[in-house]
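Troubleshooting entry. Yesterday's outputs looked truncated, so today I'm pasting the complete records for two proteins to confirm everything comes through intact. If either block looks cut off, that's the bug. Protein one:
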Amino acid sequence: MNSQKNRIEEIKANGYQLDFANVFNIAFENYKKIALYAGSLILIFSVIIFAIVAVVIISFFGIAALAKMMNPENITTQLESGNFKLIYMSMGVLFSCLISPLAAGLIKMAYCAERDEEFHVSTIFEYYKAPYFKELFIAVLLISSVTSGLAIVLEYAGVPLIGSLINLVISFFTLLTIPLIIFADLKAVDAISSSFTLVLKQPLVLLGLIVVAGIASMVGFIGCCIGIFFTIPFTYSMYYALYSEIVGFDSQNEFLEVKDPKY
C-alpha cells in the first residue's frame, strides 16, 4: 500500500485540518502558471470537438434536416420527447466518460506547475493510458449515470429542482474521485467511496472552496465569453490543491510519469 493509501485510511479514522486561505493560495498560484496553456488547449479541443460533432450530424441528417431540427419550435418538441431525453442523457454520459482523462490531465498540469516542472500537450492526454483510462471511465460512468438517471426520474415526477440539487450534492461529494484515481491508484468504486468519506470530514470548508472556484471559473463569461476557456482551469487547479492539502504526496516525486500498468 503506497503512502497515499495509508494517509487516506488515517484520514478516514482521524479526520484532517484544512486551511481555506492556504488551499486557495496554492490553487491560485498554480492556476497562474497553467492558465494560458491549459486554456488554449481547452479552446482548441472544444473547436475540434464541435467541428467533429457538426460533421457527424450533417453526414447523418444533411444540412436541410439539421436546419429544420434547429428551428425553435422543433427544438421545443424534441426536448419534450422522452426518447430524445434518453438519447441526450446517454450521449452526455458517454461524452463525460470519454473526456474524463482530459480533466485528469489538467489536474496533472497543476501538479507539475507547483513543482516548476515542464508540461506539454502530451500531459493532458497522459491518462488515456492503462490502467487509468479504465478506472476514470468507470468512475465517471457510475457518477454520471446516477445523476442523469435521477434527474430524468425526478423531472417526470414533477420536481426537477430537487433532481438538480441532488446532482450538485453528488458532484460535490465525488469531487476528489479523479485525483484519488490518478495519484493514489485507487480503483473507481474505491475512489468514489473515499471521496465521499474525505469530503464528509470537512464539508463546509470544501463547499466554500468549491463555490469560490466555481465563481472564479465563471468570471470568464464577463465581457468576451471566450474567456471562460481560460478561467475553467482554476477549478482543476483547486481539485489538485485540495488533494495535495488533504492527502499529500511522498517526498519523492513518484508521479512525474504515468506508472506502468502493472502497478
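Protein two, checking that the full record survives here as well:
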Amino acid sequence: MKVGLFIPCYIDQFYPQVGIATLQLLEKLGCEVGYPSGQTCCGQPMANSGFEHLTDGCNHLFTDHFKDYDYIVGPSGSCVLHIKDHLHVADNEKAATHIRQHIYELSEFLTDVLQVKQLTARFPHRVGIHQACHGQRGLHLSQMTELVGQPFSKPQQLLNMVNGLELVELSRADECCGFGGTFCVFEEAVSVKMGKDRVEDHIQHGAEYITSNDVSCLMHMEGILRRQNSPVKVLHIAEILNHG
C-alpha cells in the first residue's frame, strides 16, 4: 500500500526524531512510504482559536499533497483528528473526502489497517501511557473510564508487544495533561497545575518513561519534568515501537 507520511509542523521543528521513527517503523512493516516535502501546518491552531475561515490555504495545500495516497498516517492524534473532522475543499471535495476517510493516527493504523500482531522492538523499562484527549475522545483509540464498556487501548495493545517493557498502572488512566493547544497559553496556571498532577501520577507509580501518541502532550509534560529535575523521560510511542 502507498502511505503518505504526515508530519505535523511542531514535530518537524522540535521533535524530528519522532517523524524518523514513524517512517522507519512503517517501512519495517512493509509499507511504501512517501513524504510530500511541501507539506506545512494542517491549520489546527487557527481553527482552535476560532479562525477556521482562514484555513483554506492549508486545506488546499494538504489536499494537493496527499490526494494520491491510499492512506495518510501521522504521529499526532490531534492533527489527524483535525483533518478527519475539518478538511473541506470546495473545488476538490472528492479528494478531501478521500483524505478524511483514509487518514489515520499511527497506532490506529497499525492496529486497524495493518493489524499488527507482533513486533521486534525491545525496551526494558517501566513505562506509563498518557492517553491524549484528542486520540481517546475524538479518534476513540481507547475506552474512556467514565463509560461502562469493555476496556481497550490501541496504544497499550501495541506496547504489550514490546519485549522487556513493563506498563505501570496509573491512578487516573485518562486524565488530561492540561496542554490543550492554546489553552496552555491563555490559562497558563491551570494548565501547569494539570500537567504537574499528570506527571506526579506517573512518578508515584515508578514510571521511567511517559509515552503518548501526541507529542504536544509530551512536550508539555517534558517541560514540567525538566523544571523539577526529574529523571523521568518522555518518548513518543513510535520511538518505543521502533526501538531495538
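Both blocks look complete. Sanity check on protein two: The beta strands are 2-5, 32-34, 71-74, 103-105, 126-129, 166-167, 209-212, 233-236.
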